[in-house]
Amino acid sequence: MFASEMEDAVLAASPDTEEELFDETKSPAEYRDNGVGIRGIGRTNVSSIFWAQKVLRTHGTGAWVFGFPSATVWADSQVSVSLTELDVNGIPFLGRATMQVLNVVPHADGTTTVRYHVGWDTNLRVLFNFIIVN
Hints:
This protein is 0% helix and 43% strand. By secondary structure, it is an all-beta fold. The two termini are 35 Å apart.
């Protein structure tokens, strides 16, 4: 059972794992919360939000560099990625394969590298769903 406090929930981590204070640089100092980098939507300097989808035919563990010509991506962009399997009609569905996003790295050149794992022996159509916030 999770406590109702506003703390991070730790389900599994090595015994020597510890939280590090993060000097968040994208918002003015008066919007920062003790160096943790948390701020409410009413106190933000978001300049753009972009949503995109890309499809790969893939399986196993891989890394792919995605480009978004109509979006602004910087090394300090906030990028969220989710994966889902697509059926033959291009409709997302929950198949038997497990899918994981392992790492997401936005780059200063406008691209984003995603390391992922698709737990299947042959290629599946996988939808990568991106939300990019600056």
